Amino acid sequence: MKFSIITVNYNNAAGLEKTFKSVFSQTYADFDFVVIDGGSTDTSTNIIEQHKDKISYWISEKDTGVYNAMNKGIRAAKGDFVIFMNSGDVFFDADVLQNAYPLITPEYAIYYGNNIKKSPSSERLKTYPAKLNFSFFYSSSLNHQSTFIKKSLFDDIFYYNENYKIASDWEFFAYAICLQNVPYKYLNQTISIYDFTGISSTQSELLAKEKLDSIKKYFPAFEDDYVDISLLTSKRVQQIFHIQKYPVAWRILKNFISVILLFLPKLKK
């Protein structure tokens, strides 16, 4: 079996229903479907029970976080390649697996495509470069909703870091591609519609903190560069760059900074 679809869920019955509908509508149906529920107290388990004849493996029990649940899913999966479609996420259309099937071979360990990032107020297409390097991972990452990963790669490298809340998939991809030179390939097609309201999308400070911790561990030579780039791309600095477009506001800000710099030595005394 080539594919395993892994769905992780916790108290998101509406999102789970949406994801199930997308998975079951795939025109290519020869896949392993694994559902890991974190002991939900809503109606999620009822929904799973209703569809259990279409699910290869499922469990509902308390876990220590999303990456603990994802690792459980990997271990239960039987396919050669896994893709995570967590509750609320859906395939772009019914033919995603059918179109991907002939393109995905054992030659590469990671196949990644595009996704649509969707929130209640916006929707945009996210595309990716065909060549990945560490400069890409400084400010971005691959999305697991749009990436097929050879299951054996987790045994060869490591499973997701369960100490992180957000950055474990970033760490996995950066380490595999930039340090281990794992072969990868870009699929120039849209794979998923990604629910852009999760924790990784709303807690940028925690994400930056975990990424810096990972860089210290695996890429220490780039630690200072990462800190510098983080400062340059911070919200405050971007606001300053935006103010530059308005001459009067920019002149006021420069004068204010000049006054601060003038009195700063005196304040230190």
From TrEMBL:
Keywords assigned: Transferase
Coiled-coil portions: none
Molecular function terms from GO: transferase activity
InterPro entries the UniProt entry points to: Glyco_trans_2-like, Glycosyltransf_2, Nucleotide-diphossugar_trans
Matches recorded under SUPFAM superfamilies: Nucleotide-diphospho-sugar transferases (SSF53448)
Glycosyltransferase 2-like domain sequence ranges: 4-128
Stated name of the protein: Glycosyl transferase
Organism for this UniProt entry: Flavobacterium rivuli WB 3.3-2 = DSM 21788
